[in-house]
């Protein structure tokens, strides 16, 4: 084969980024006719027990700070210089906390291969009263990359790293890119389905957290499993309606994918959004107090998204059409009774 | 109004039949322009503490044997004579264990109103190698009733009786009948959605139990919530494929209803099918031994349906196309390793 092989760079090295690096390291070796053997991983440099983290990773093939005990393939090279890590790459995998996406993109403007392909594993959306930003599209706009794909699913990083079977969904408008990303991510224990509806993939990943808040309220009220299942279903239906109302291309079948129903089930069974909402229902303490007590002051994604969705709908006078999302907001922030959630 | 009002008879008086009687008793009063106030309930006569059960129900407005502590409306009249209960009725609600359906229908042949409307709340299907029988259709065939409807959902009888919020799905080909059944069943705490796809409603109610077996195996192997959610999703997809392959009219959206995704979530979270399968995975004891130990010798629905589905598929040389259902059968009855379920 004389075709140019793809050179992959992973941008990010937290818990999820490292779990993904493990998979990518193995898959580029498996598909050696498609990918160059060496993979760059941009790691935000920090100190780990007196040494730079990138040095530790490159020496031990493990990220002891964010995913201890999991060995990465030898072909993953941790690189502290973002531009150096990316400039020669033909495939970029964005797996960063969402607040860092813009800064990273700005640093890369004009520095990436003009035909680079990209995929976003960034969690969440940016919902403002005047519109919704998908991170795949934001990355594409800033770096002038067409058709940035997205990946989301019922994927708890630690379980994926321990090779516990699960699935994921890749949304890619381009079929060719979809196939490429399938080769990059799919393994027997991490099964990737490729669909075209990247918007649905990203929407599900954000809106599920609002549904998990409702599930937590149900648990906090000691409602039974009938009620909780009904709320999960109603939430799923409102996610679907939100997608159909504000994004024409969102498809019904997307909600059957791992990014839809499976991620929703996992998120409503365990997870911090459900847990903090249960504590809210049991104790009556405000969310910001619980964030301090239970999350060391970190913001809870579900309650934040509930506010953003409310403001977005409110700006369009459409809160009535989304009674489930509205109820979650009213309960969390407007003192509505907890059982409003079952009286839509 | 000079229109003839509907006279309702409930056929069955177990746990679920009694919970349903509570709802129907209240709804006929609420919709008094549509329904006659008095509701007949056929109760299989048995002794309750020295008295006939029907007498106890009519005196106390409670069924202390099958739903103790729940008061029924005064307009529910328990009747031990099946033909007497039904002969004057215009609406029949079948809510019996499936093994009694044929006998009851045979006793009613020629004895029911020729224009009677009927709905089946019978759980399960009859799957034989040569075909699948829906109980709605079986009732219709035996009693010459057109368009028998079906009702199923995430509805644990005790939770419904205690008025804990949940939803249910009514499948009715006839729109007019669908509206009538909506008035008969819908309450603020038991929300009924009417769809046309009665086949999908009944299929979901039976096949979910096979998926719950897989969920129980996952729990028994101590797999995490990612894996369990993936299995629930794969099971849902195979339920959908089964419906589409063998029943043309089954619709995608049916699986978004309470009878689909919500019932599946409840059944895979708790329930006896999940529990016995977990014990199977942990102890390695055969299913029939566990049925004796955990269910007083009652048959487990999920394992029974797994055999029936396997035989049905096998007769068509199609087990390969349903790897999830096949794996459940192979694990339960052919000694396949437990982790076959994640190696489809």
UniProtKB/TrEMBL annotation, chains A, B:
Keyword Transmembrane (UniProt): no
GO annotation terms (biological process): carbohydrate metabolic process; glycerol-3-phosphate catabolic process
Residues of the active site: 208 (proton acceptor)
GO CC terms of this entry: cytosol; nucleus
Catalysed reaction equations from the record: sn-glycerol 3-phosphate + NAD(+) = dihydroxyacetone phosphate + NADH + H(+)
A Pfam family: NAD_Gly3P_dh_N
EC number: 1.1.1.8
Keywords: NAD, Oxidoreductase
Domain of life: Eukaryota
UniProt domain Glycerol-3-phosphate dehydrogenase NAD-dependent N-terminal: residue ranges: 8-176
Residues reported in the UniProt entry to bind NAD(+): 12-17, 44, 100, 157, 272, 299, 301
The family this protein is said to belong to: Belongs to the NAD-dependent glycerol-3-phosphate dehydrogenase family.
PANTHER family: GLYCEROL-3-PHOSPHATE DEHYDROGENASE (PTHR11728), GLYCEROL-3-PHOSPHATE DEHYDROGENASE [NAD(+)]-RELATED (PTHR11728:SF8)
Protein name: Glycerol-3-phosphate dehydrogenase [NAD(+)]
UniProt organism field: Absidia repens
